[in-house]
Amino acid sequence: MTNGAAAGAGSDGDEADAWRARLGWAFGLIAEDPAERAAALAHLDAARRNTWAALDRFNELWHLTRPLGPQEQYQEPAFRRAHEVYADVRSHSLPEGLWGRGADRGPGLPYALLFLEWEARFPREWTEHAKAWSTKQSLIRRMAVVDHDQPTRAKLIGLVEVVVQRAHRCKDREYVRVARAVDGEDLRHRLGTAAASDNPWARLHAGYVLWLLDRPEVPNTHHVWRTWVSEASGRRPGSADPRG
């Protein structure tokens, strides 16, 4: 290994350690053990309270120093410190810790996947404790690339499989982007199984995704969705909310 490669590996390791220090606790949010999830949810609630308190202090100083002008304001020590504290405190919380920190690549990727898996598997807890539709949408779109490694592809395929089997939730339609990015035999087998199941949501949603995978030129728009639902024989027109 060259010195440059070694330095890069060390840098990646340091970054991974930093992510783990900030958000390693969050894997408890998707634990099978309810007690472990409850502890992680309590941790999250405390982290969000700290974030809101730091934001309140930042906003207070922003108003106080605003007359200085935009350049001088960010040079004022108390205001600059409040900004630094807020940036640090929010990085230990969700969804704030996924904003602008490279969560779609490298050591941050597992935490983006964690956030999406949490929403997919435990939607009630996600909605109650950290609802953030725009963050969900942004992360899904950033996941919709073709160059993922195999473990990441497998995780994304699993997320698509979970999402197509439930009643529509806001921004679920974005997962079509992911399905197209990770299209392959495994995904199509799972979607085919879902589309042939007794679950009416799975038949509807999985059938639609399979139809789109065979037509990469067709956009995933509200109009296309509504038209497909209304024309799909044997399915329940209008059973899913097409507004996500």
Characterization of this structure:
- The chain is mainly α and about 240 residues long.
- The protein folds into 2 domains: about 1-110, no CATH class; about 145-244, no CATH class.
- About 65% of the residues lie in helices and about 0% in strands.
- The chain has 12 helices and no strands.
- The chain has helices at about 5-25, 35-65, 70-75, 75-90, 110-120, 125-130, 135-145, 150-165, 175-180, 185-195, 200-215, 220-230.
- α2 packs antiparallel against α4.
- The longest helix is centred in the first third of the chain and has 32 residues, at about 35-65.
- It is elongated and about 60 Å long.
- Residues about 1-10 and about 235-244 have low confidence and may be disordered.
Q: Gist?
A:
The chain is an all-alpha fold. It is 66% helix and 0% strand.
Helix-strand pattern: HHHHHHHHHHHH
Number of separate helices: 12
The figure for the number of domains is 2
Please tell me how large the radius of gyration is: 21 Å
What would the principal axes of the Cα set say about the shape? elongated
Largest sheet: none
Protein structure class? mainly alpha
- How much helicity do the residues have? 55-70%
Mean pLDDT: 90
| Low-confidence residue ranges | 1-9, 237-244
Extended strand count? 0
Strand content: under 5%
What is the straight-line distance between the termini? 48 Å
